[in-house]
Amino acid sequence: MHRKHMILAVLVTALWGLNFPLTKLGLAHIDPLLLTGLRFALCALPWVFFVTRPKVAVHWLAAYGLIFGVAMWALINLGIAMGVPAGSASLLIQFSAFFTLAWGCLLFRERLTGTQLVGIALAATGLVGILAVSPGKTTTTGLLLLLISALAWSIGNVIIKLSKVKEIFAFVIWASLFAPIPLLSLAWWLHGTAAFVALAAQANAVVVFCLLFQVYAATHFCYWGWNYLLREYPVSRVAPLSLLIPVFGIASSALIVDEVPSGWEWLCIALILSALAVGMKPGRAVLGSKPVAAVH
Question: How far, in Å, are 63, 66, 263 from residue 88 at the CA level?
């Protein structure tokens, strides 16, 4: 990989990792569903008036917008709001790699290798360890929401593949149009007008910075950069770099929100990181009928 592309990859993963503790800061002031709704509203507007709609059917845009905005990021924000450490959130969302492998096996008759099965077993062990030290029912529910969000991300990957979209940046912008109304409606249904009325008072500098970072850095720039790399290089060369996301996420969480994992949690984190690294290595197929790409 060229040096400039490696720098881009590190920058993208660093911004994605940093997004988790910054999100936690924003959630200290604003409802998670409202924050997510505002994020995707700003992701779409006013950019849909300047970016040409991608050449895919509307149902693919709607499906991805609902999965990406409502089923993925709303659940990530709810999980963090329920007490899941931001660093752990950045790690658990990486389970989407294994869910994506499973979808490839089930839907596209791709095959799983022995190393990928070992990776799944290691990841499951690390996850059970994290759940075992969860401080309470609320945080455990938050952890489960993070896993559902990882599943949602994997479904989003399947939608990208099935839609055969080429204009990824435009696709994200136009798909974001479908997320705000369901998110804001859910916030109103659960909390009434209180969250909206309090927004003016809660929208301090921290919330504004968090929101702008999520829109322009974590969504617009990072999704452009990541998909640019996927276009220029084989998936097998780019996908393993996603392992840097939880590294930056855990490190920045320790610095920004003072969330330092315990010794047992470090062991579980190491198991999951090892699982992701092992699962992306090639190996002999043991399940399925054709090779499966180690994609994230």
Answer: 27, 24, 14
Between vectors from CA 103 to CA 134 and to CA 270, what angle results, nearest 5°?
35
Tell me, yes or no, whether 203 lies in a domain. Answer: yes
- Per residue in 103-138, pLDDT (tens digit) is 777 776 666 677 777 777 777 787 777 767 655 555
* Domain tally, the chain: 1
d(Cα 210, Cα 236) in Å, to the nearest integer? 32
150, with CB counted inside 10 A (0-12, 13-18, 19+), is buried
Please give the residue range of the domain that contains residue 220. 3-282
Residue 292 lies in a domain: no
* Radius of gyration for the alpha carbons in the chain, expressed in angstroms and rounded: 19
**Whether pTM exceeds 0.85:** no
Half-sphere exposure of 26 (CA within 13 A, CB side): 26
Could you tell me if residue 256 is inside a domain? yes
**84 in Cβ contact with 284 (< 8 Å):** no
Interval 80-94: pLDDT, tens: 998 888 888 888 887
Residue 75 in any domain: the answer is: yes
Can you spell out the DSSP letters for 92-105? HGGGHHHHHHHHHH
CA distance 289 to 43: 40
Phi, psi of 108, deg, nearest 5: -115, 10
